[in-house]
Amino acid sequence: MDSATSEPTADAGRPSGVSTPNTGTPDTGTPDTGTPESGTSESGTSDARTPLEASADNGLKIVIVGGFGVGKTTMIHSVSEIRPLSTEETITGAGGTVDDVSAVPGKSRTTVAFDFGRITLSARTVLYLFGAPGQERFWYLWDRLFTGALGAVVLVDTRRIDDSWYAIDRLERLGTPFIVARNDFGGPAHTPDQVRDALDLAPHIPLLDCDARSRDSGKRVLITLIEHIKSLYLAEDPQVIERVRAARSPYEAEGAAGTPHAPHTPQDQATAPAQELAR
Amino acid sequence: MSRPGRDDAPDRLYTVTQGRSRSTPGTPFDLVTLVVAECDAVPGMQSEHAAILRLAERPTAVAEVAAELRLPISITKILLSDLLAEGRVSARHPRRAEIAGRPDPDILEQVLVGLRNL
Fold it and tell me: Under an 8 A CB cutoff, do B59 and A5 touch?
């Protein structure tokens, strides 16, 4: 049934040195953005998990989609109140046309691993951030795992921008609201317009720069996503737009003033919502 | 980091669910459904069930239970539906963040306030 049968100790949590050519490894260990904790084997242990308030009764989801090494787990780590945990889902049967089944002889299932973190928003509301690989097999799981997500952040590495195409295309088809965040890896500078062109990104979809290592930056990405979702909803009612604009200004001021160390251009996220409203 | 479930012996997964590969139809567990234990673990209980009851002394999302147990989400949901059916846990399902296909403005506002206060 499964060739892993012969290694029952593999789930003991010790790094076995055997890596699979798959998505199981979290992408915390990118050379230039690794957090101090990345690569430790203890993430996911119980003592890292602060309990929720007993009154917590509403879980919300945001999905951060991006290719391997783009900084998904780093971003989750920056904003999460718990060290990112890792879990997985298997695809069997119905997902049988999925790519890597044929690549692993005798294996009848395939696995998508994802990391997640948590932000307590209020006594009752908890936001979960899931980092998800953008490859094809992941999308077979979207319906099972991520329906009902508030929205998605597509995390982009401009050195490997093609990786993001597929994710953007899928999210558009799913009708899931999303924004694009460009993680700064210090590569060659592209203007926002160049990135938009390269991604074939619709003008109303916010594109902003971020530093996945920075809590303020990650927070700003999430706020931009929620503002975007809000504007999609409210854009249909012109009378409300003025109120949105008024409500948005404090955030813009805050965004421009915060995070001096983050190599972002504040005007990016300030102009994106304005473009939406102009449409 | 370990990859829960992935390298587990399949017979372990088979055993913990007594051979079932999907949860009861209509079991509405979401990844972020918060599970709360309604009783203590008792001797003789299946160890995974006992582990869930200990974890869920405070509200715990399905995804967290799966990560802590190092089991795939689908297997975790089977275990949770057993416990739910026996009344040993209760489930706090996410409130619909959408109304008629549109995001619920109240929930969005709550999220914004919460994020800004981070």
Answer: no
Most confident stretch, A21-35, B72-86, B103-117 = B72-86
* Residue A37: closest C-alpha in chain B: B1
What domains are defined for chain B?
10-116 (1.10.10)
Distances (CA, A) of A104 to A98, A141, B7: 11, 20, 13
Three-class SS state of A142:
helix
By the 10 Å C-beta count (0-12 exposed, 13-18 middle, 19+ buried), A261 is classed as exposed
Exposure b/e, A47-76, CB count within 10 A at least 16 = b: eebeebeeebbbbbbbbbbbbbbbbbbbbb
CATH number of A20-278: 3.40.50.300
Tell me the pLDDT tens digit for each residue of A65-108.
998 889 999 999 999 999 999 999 987 654 444 444 344 444 55
| CB spacing of B92 vs A52 below 8 angstroms | no
pTM: 0.73
A76, B5 in Cβ contact below 8 A?
no
| Of B72, B95, B98, Cβ closest to residue A58 | B95
What are the structural domain ranges in chain A? Answer: 20-278
Give the alpha-carbon dihedral of A225, A228, A230, A232, to 10 degrees: -140
Residue B10 is predicted with a pLDDT of 60
Task: Map residue B103 onto helix, strand or coil.
Answer: strand
Supply the ipTM of this predicted assembly.
0.86
Measured distance CA(B116)–CA(B118) in Å, rounded: 5
Determine the residue among A41, A82, A88 to mutate to test chain B binding: the one whose Cβ has the most chain B Cβ atoms within 10 Å.
A88
Whether the pLDDT of residue A21 is over 50: the answer is no
Contact criterion met (CB < 8 Å) for B114 and A20: no
